[in-house]
Amino acid sequence: MNPFEAQPPVDPPNVAPEQPSGASLLPMPGAEAAPTPTAPHYQPAPPPEPLPELPPLPEERSADGRVILTDSSVTIRGRQFSLRELERAEITPVKWILWYLLGGLGLAFVMIAFLQNQLRTGPAMLGMVATALLLAYGHRGTNRLRLHRLGREVVNFALPGDTAPWQRLTDELNRRIFRVHDYDARQAAALLAAADEATRQAAQAAADAQAAADQLNQPNAGNDFPG
Fold first, then answer.
1. pTM of the model
2. Average pLDDT, the chain
3. 189 three-state secondary structure
4. Measuring CA to CA, how many Å separate 181 from each of 84, 143, 186?
């Protein structure tokens, strides 16, 4: 019989377990805690600088006062149009064909009748003068101003007189129309570029925040030390 088997088991000593102290929670000397990754902080894109206002232009007015042109509108025969609703303007000299034909044909008939001794000198001269005036009146005609509006029908105006002054005023009207449209286009392009930049920065910030969150969810191997 083995003498070690007959001995009773030894009871464990009645000693309270050692309580962990705060020192055991401190990091080991020489070991540094791993930094916690955080998402970078993005400042919102600054608002775009507003474009400078267009300098005012002097008022242009026709000799008879039928057309008044400012830097933002044009008034023709009492009807006002904004330059932003216009696409372009064009002026075309138009002859009055009816009066032109009546004057030419009447002058021809009077002269033929006079040469055939069907009319005396006095009535023939009066007829020639009257038909010549009709011919000159029809040949002079008028000036047709066409206003092309954006997405709407064309508006026509009849402007009497020589074509050259109306042509100069129409050129100035087109220049101011293109000036206003160019300013609006540059302003819209600046706003669109600012919106695209804000969207890009927001997407980049969201991607960086997602990457930081994924890194936090992974186990941090730098804090595992051997016991």
1. 0.59
2. 78
3. helix
4. 7, 26, 9
